[in-house]
Amino acid sequence: MARAILVKKDIMRICTVTTSTPRFEDDNRSPFILDLATALMNQGNEITIITMHSPGLPIKDKIKEVPIWRLRYATESKERLDLTRAGIPAAWRSSWTTGFFLVKLLLAFTSYLIKNGKNYDLLHANWTIAGLAAVLSKPFHRRPVILTLHGSEVYATQKVWGLRKITRWILNICDHVICVSNALKDEVVALGVSETKITVIPNGVYTLDSLPQNQAKGQTILFVGSLTEQKGVKYLLEAFADVNRSFKNSRLRIVGEGPELKNLRAQVQRLKLQEKVIFEGVLAHSKVAEVMQTSSMFVLPSVNEGFGVVLLESLANGLPAIAFNSGGVKDILNENSGILVEPKDVQQLATAIKRLIIDKELYDNLRKQGFKKAKGYSWDIIARKVSEIYASVLEGNETRY
């Protein structure tokens, strides 16, 4: 087959392959995938998102001017891999049939990339299922593959037999690996991937020009995220019970859905906090900022967090944050921009919440410093870093086939 010299172009044609992406413009399913695609397009690149099909949605779509192809892997009545915001990990725990549908999804992704991968300059996969499809199809499209890891897929290698070797193989075939935190990078290096092919680029956040006015009254604590065991909301409920004994006007707002919802409701009953804890369900992505600006503080009690983009969102909305010191959280929070506590330490978490309620000087300082921290993660800055990786990888591939 004839070779052609690769000519660097100002416009790059990127295929984003992902197992999770927003289903509509204001969806809360992995909004950072669409946000990055939009920012990259604003910088003059051509982006197409390839993802799994969801019930009731069109195969071919466009959201915020970003073209999206949704690939079928089952009949609509059996499409269950993204049933909740928690995505494939939650589906895996809920049914033994998940593995069968994952294989079908992998085949759908791989088949598409075998046929169409050559139409792009570069493939950018997110999570390892998409990464596996990109590298399996690579002998056919001969395009460089970049894989972004978000955390859950890497931490899962410690629990599932054989997954560690498969993940290492995928990562070593990819041309470059992006990790969303330094802690995640350390995990990937421990897997046996060369540090030279890894770059840490976090997810971004939309930032405001100035620190928003805090509209909260009383002591309103907020959690936003998937209601999974990993997110540790049960520890927050235990800590809140302690806080509420001292501060009777305190409230806890829980925004999200997931497999732990039933257990968390039962825990609220046992703790007799029915009048104090509000389960607000799933909110449109644009509504999350409004909820943050009408709350007093944000708490992320995750016991294992790849990055914690919701922390950035809280800081960007002027909301002081407390989090368990797990995974990539410490990339965002430190003594100046938030409060870190030991994972699963309920007493320490309760003490941190009380401290923010009592100490107004600390509260105001964390609001200001947290907002300043978030400004450094604007989508424009993040997209430029990703574009630099694209250009570097393309320059390193001297020929196209």
Topology of this structure?
Layout: E1 4-5, E2 13-18, H1 31-42, E3 46-52, E4 60-63, E5 66-71, H2 87-94, H3 98-116, E6 122-126, H4 128-136, H5 138-141, E7 145-149, H6 152-155, H7 163-173, E8 176-179, H8 182-191, E9 198-200, E10 219-224, H9 233-246, E11 250-255, H10 261-270, E12 277-281, H11 285-293, E13 297-300, H12 309-316, E14 321-324, E15 339-341, H13 346-358, H14 360-375, H15 379-396, E16 399-400
Parallel strand pairs: 2-3, 2-6, 3-5, 6-7, 7-8, 8-9, 10-11, 10-13, 11-12, 13-14, 14-15
Antiparallel strand pairs: 1-16, 4-5
Helix pairs in contact: 1-15, 3-4, 4-7, 9-13, 12-14
How is this structure best described in words?
The chain folds into two domains: 4-204 and 379-400, Rossmann fold (3-Layer(aba) Sandwich), CATH 3.40.50.2000; 219-375, Glycogen Phosphorylase B (Rossmann fold). Helices cover 41% and strands 18% of the residues. It has 15 helices and 16 strands. The strands form three sheets. The chain has an eight-stranded mixed β-sheet with strand order 4-5-3-2-6-7-8-9, sandwiched between helices. A six-stranded parallel β-sheet has the order 12-11-10-13-14-15, sandwiched between helices. α8 links the parallel β8 (176-179) and β9. α4 packs across α7 (163-173) and α12 (309-316) packs across α14 (360-375). The longest helix is centred in the first third of the chain and has 19 residues, at 98-116. The N and C termini lie close together (7 Å).
